UniProtKB/TrEMBL annotation:
The gene is LOC103057374. This is FAS-associated factor 2. The keyword Isomerase does not apply. PANTHER family: FAS-ASSOCIATED FACTOR 2 (PTHR23322:SF1), FAS-ASSOCIATED PROTEIN (PTHR23322). The lineage of its organism: Eukaryota, Metazoa, Chordata, Craniata, Vertebrata. Residues 101-163 are annotated as: Disordered. One of its GO terms (biological process) is ERAD pathway. GO terms for molecular function: ubiquitin binding. InterPro entries: Ubiquitin-like_domsf, UBX_dom, UBX_domain-protein.
Length: 246
């Protein structure tokens, strides 16, 4: 309650101070007192003073006279106010247009940056794919060399337990090599795999009867059979089928 009372008293004192200041500025001599104030030459100016008692008709006449006398200033101030308003509206429109243009430029730059980043990621992805392909080819070549080094020696043509096999490759070329009846079919696969012209994935087929030779371990053939167990004769023609795209 004390704080409220102090605030109210302070507010009243402020009002009284303003009233006193205005009164001092107007320098009225008696009451009732009426002053007409308008913006004139960009200053608030008293253009009419009416003091003491006055009849209604006289009041209206004097007010009308004061307004007519200052009509030029009133019109001028109205025009200046309208001009200021129009200037303000124009400036606001210009600001809005600038902001819209700025946002459009920012959006264009964002899209350009996004495109550049997308292009960079694409180029990086292509480069990574190239590196991965190179590593894959290098690994494949190393595996081919390893398989070639691990191949058992080729039997002598006079060896009665040898098998002469002619391989028809997917590119219509022919490769010939001898193997031993007791060797696993895996040896045939390793030999073909070690060749440069062989596809990465392939299967070996026999013609009579037509069948795919189980050269690699599977659930059905965990241990691939020997050439003899597979029913190969002393001379065979086998077909290499490319499975790379399958």
């Amino acid at each position: 309650m004390l704080n409220y009372g102090l605030c109210s008293k302070a507010a009243n004192m402020t009002v009284l101070y303003i009233f006193f200041s205005v009164s001092q500025a107007l320098r009225e001599n008696t009451y009732p007192f009426l002053a007409m104030i308008m913006l004139k030459d960009r200053r608030m100016t008293v253009v009419g003073r009416l003091e003491g008692l006055i009849q209604p008709d006289d009041l209206i006449n004097q007010l009308t006279f004061i307004m007519d006398s200052n009509q030029t200033y009133l019109v001028s101030e109205r025009l200046e106010r309208e001009e200021r308003n129009q200037t303000q509206v124009l400036r606001q429109q210009q600001d809005e247009a600038y902001l819209a243009s700025l946002r459009a430029d920012q959006e264009k730059e964002r899209k350009k940056k996004e495109e550049r980043e997308k292009k960079r990621r694409k180029e990086e992805e292509v480069q990574q794919q190239k590196l991965a392909e190179e590593r894959r080819r290098q690994t494949l070549q190393e595996e081919k060399e390893r398989k070639s080094e691990c191949l058992p020696p080729e039997p002598h043509p006079d060896d009665p337990e040898s098998v002469k096999i002619i391989f028809k490759m997917p590119n219509d070329s022919r490769v010939e090599r001898r193997f031993h009846f007791t060797q696993s079919l895996t040896v045939i696969h390793d030999f073909l795999f070690s060749l440069k012209e062989s596809p990465e994935k392939f299967q070996i087929e026999a013609n009579f009867p037509r069948r795919v030779l189980p050269c690699l371990p599977t659930e059905e053939w965990p241990n691939p059979p020997t050439l003899q167990e597979a029913g190969l004769s002393h001379t065979e023609v086998l077909f290499v089928q490319d499975l790379t795209d399958d």
